[in-house]
Amino acid sequence: MTTSHYIAGHWVEGQGSDCISVNDPALGQPFAELMAASVSQVDQAVAAARSALPAWKSTCASERAAFLRGFAEQLGQRREALVTVQMRNNGKPRHEAEIDLDDAIATFGYYADLAEQLPSKNRTVPLAAPGFTARTRLEPVGVVGLIVPWNFPLVTSAWKLAPALAAGCTVVLKPSEVTPLIEQAYGQIADALGLPAGVLNIVNGKAETGAALSNHNGLDKLSFTGSNSVGSQVMRSASAQCRPVTLELGGKSAIVVFDDCDVDQAVEWIVAGISWNAGQMCSATSRLLVQDGIADALLPRLQAALENLRVGNPLTEEVDMGPLTSQAQWLKVASYFATAREEGLQCLAGGHALDREGWFVSPTLYTDVPKDSRLWTEEIFGPVLCARRFATEEQAIAEANDSRFGLVATVCSADLERAERVADALEVGHVWINSVQAVFVETSWGGTKGSGIGRELGPWGLSAYQSVKHVTRCLG
């Protein structure tokens, strides 16, 4: 794994000072190592992207679409290898890893279709003033830096990479140092397809590499997905350059269950919202608001459902939930268990790390959690669910919106008119009604408040990598 960086169409050895240890979280042991890119290599990657930009943005839209479809096809051909990497490096159960791959494939296919439609978006604009004509052009924003997280590698990078390439941008991609292996597939696919050198560059590394990229004055835009603490640093570097950013940050999302809901169905939606990817999702619905009339029936069944989840090594066991992806995250979640004990929270399920090798914790449920508890207000990024009861629709909306985050929410009710009304009142970027968290490439992704800036997916994801030019001509 020494040639772990893809720069200007070539695989090169890392020249940085950091050695990245790649771990199997189910065993708590490393299985690969690679050297980080140096600051100089980040410079080389940005220079390669800058050099490739004029030709790539001039490439006809149908040719860019053909490359994107090639990415989709090549991902499918690598299915078993990529699913295995997700299971081994992330700890994802097989069914989750397969959905991740299908999501990435669908994303490249969708933006291939949008790329083909780009010529029709350049159009004449009618003017009220006589003697002038005007037209619009949608142009690539330029060289973009993409920094992606460890919880959904391959997927989050597809959400950024596909629209950026469709728009005609060139790219420097930095994967997470926790999960650096799977994005290597994008460089391998670029080689296989004959993607022009410099259009896609991949640099691996830790904080030094990320800072070198986010601070680089050769970028025209930066798109970042990750924690709020790092996101604020990205914003500071962007402000120094007066450079546009897309930020997809944290969440502390609510799932609202009304008393007319089927109990067993509600339990299914609640469990999926907190246990998928072991709760390591910015969209995890970790705040359960349950109406008084259903709470006494729902909470015991929810407790049993969480206790019955099969937790284990996805490579050797049939599991519902795998380990946390890193030791650092395992220690963080364990610290919240300690905080819950200090606060005297009532624990109905879990509340502890599992006594086995690897970074496993128990699916956890706390009830009657005070609104000022750290567990109610802070993003934990683990399978830790906090519940509160409510009496009225107005109270549910107020408590759901009482957060510094605003990413997603779920509403569960047999009264669809009420569900739609509540969805409209929630201060978030995406709401599910009577559903698990199904994310479709045609919809938008992003949040309000402290959950970020901008939107990914759908046509909004493409427009994030485009600038608008107007050409006005005097006819006199």
TrEMBL record:
Q: This protein's superkingdom?
A: Bacteria
Q: Give coiled-coil spans as residue ranges.
A: none
Active-site residues are 248
Q: Which InterPro entries match?
A: Ald_DH/histidinol_DH (IPR016161), Ald_DH_C (IPR016163), Ald_DH_CS_GLU (IPR029510), Ald_DH_N (IPR016162), Aldehyde_DH_dom (IPR015590)
Q: Does the keyword Oxidoreductase apply?
A: yes
Q: Drop me one GO molecular function for this one.
A: oxidoreductase activity, acting on the aldehyde or oxo group of donors, NAD or NADP as acceptor
Key words, A-Z = Oxidoreductase
Aldehyde dehydrogenase domain span:
11-471
Report the family membership. Answer: Belongs to the aldehyde dehydrogenase family.
Q: What is the official name of this protein in its record?
A: Aldehyde dehydrogenase family protein
Organism encoding this protein: Pseudomonas putida (Arthrobacter siderocapsulatus)
